[in-house]
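Schema walk-through. Below, the input block comes first and the output block second. Nothing else is stored per chain. Lengths vary across the set, and this one has 589 residues.
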Amino acid sequence: MSLPQPATRKDFLPAWAETAGVFLFLAVTFWIIRYWHSGAFGWYEDDLTIIPRAVTLPAPDLFAYVWSYIYHLYGHARPLSDSMIYVFSHFGWKLGGIAGAYWIGYGIQVLNILLFYLLLKRVHSRLFALTGSLAYILFSADTTQVFLTHSLGLHPSITLLLLANHAYLSGRKILAYLLAFIILFSYETPFLLFLAVPLLQKDWDWKKIKEWVFHGLILGALLVGIILLRSAVGEGRVEGLTPAQMITTPILHMLQGPPVSLGTYFYRPIQALGSLNLEVILASLLAFLAIFWALWRTRPGFVNLSTQTVRDAWQGFRPARLAAALRRGEYPQEIPPEWKALIRLAAAGLVLLVLAYPLTFTVRAYAISGRDTRVHAAAVVGAAVLWASLGTFAISFAAIYRKKALAVLPLAALFALLAGYGFVIQRDYTQGWQLQKQFWTEIQPLIQDAGADTVILVEPTGLRDTRQMGANTWNLPRILNQIYTFPPDWKNPPRVYRLAPNWQNQILTEDGQFQINAATSIAPPSLYVTADPENVIFIETKTGRLERRKTPLPLGDREYELKTVSSPTLQAYPPGFLYPLLVQEPYTY
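--- output ---
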């Protein structure tokens, strides 16, 4: 039995008030599922490379640095991405410490949600816009939305994309191309999505093909120009690709990425069910009620169709009729215009989804965990348009037969579990920051005699890891010199390295030195070193706690003497910026 149809918005609020109410609903929903625990979030991986410098620079020095960064095309020749991280994190710190930057990151993404909602609303209906916007904010193929390096440096590119789409559909094409071009100097993966913007227009005909070809030629010229520019300035990731890789990698990613990003809409709910606790259960239940109410009260897209019209329309999908119509380059005559519009938008969504992956050269397109899921960041637009099309069709079709609840209930349930999974992601971020503070607090009394040329190796067996955001991994060598202020004349300050699995088989050089490289450690290549064992502090973790090895380290058929414990000196150096953030006193020597 279907529930009674709700009254339309005309009985209650003007259109602008309804839009404001929907946007408030979306903004609050996004905050809850991604930022509810943001007060316990910290800095992770790339954050710890950029943000400490950004927040400690005086504003004039910051802007001078950013200008130099842009002028010289640093940052893989896309300087705007890192520059925005510097600027936004600097002022975020002044606004409210670590939490201030998260507020700015949230603001950027809420702006994107508003722009996306308005974009979908201008190409179809309120139900289409609401369903697509919910799919946008619940998109979980990319689990790095709150990661400051991405919310401050990547997501502004999506802002530029959405603004360019609005400008193009409003007839301001010069402005649209300018905004799209700027994407290539920021985070480039959303750029190609702009190729599909003509498909969002309400009417398709053969005249549009000429427009689309011309549009593609302009974008192709812009892209080729940027590739040549990056090659000219020696951008490593362009130089490192062979011509064959530049062709095969985009094709492979376009085949791998879309099924993965769409599949996570069903896989993440399964993961949420496997990670149930009271918080996830409550979040899912409340999300179900809110999403069901929002979808239920929104007017379906084609309520004026009769059941007979629908039956006739299905005849047009018979294989013979459909094939004949496609040969003529048209829809079967029986298909209602309302359905044709959704079919066109679904096709546009699929094109947008595929175009999210050709520029993702450096990360595997099937990633579903950790920082590598950024490969799916631009796919949110196409995936959400597809969900908007499917959801609008299902709800509107069910409403014709007065069975609207049969469509709204399963969609709300699926979205509710996706909301619950948002708390699983937040749990990883919270634990990741706690694990970093625990590590640096616990290691302090064990390395107090570290000095110039000291290498600290951490055996990783007992280290705890989080799935969605790395803690104590590749960025460890960059932390200790931010916890303490070492003499500037030290060429090789003490550094902490996390050893890689099976490090024992690769670490020795022919002359008995320890080599720290890609085979033995998780560290940036610029910080690879070769160390005398007598300058090495070896930290064991097998017991679940950090312990310094004080006996020789057996490797192969020999034992190697390590750095002997001497008088503590590390604490004598001035504390650095990260000391109060990562070291929880008191601890004992």
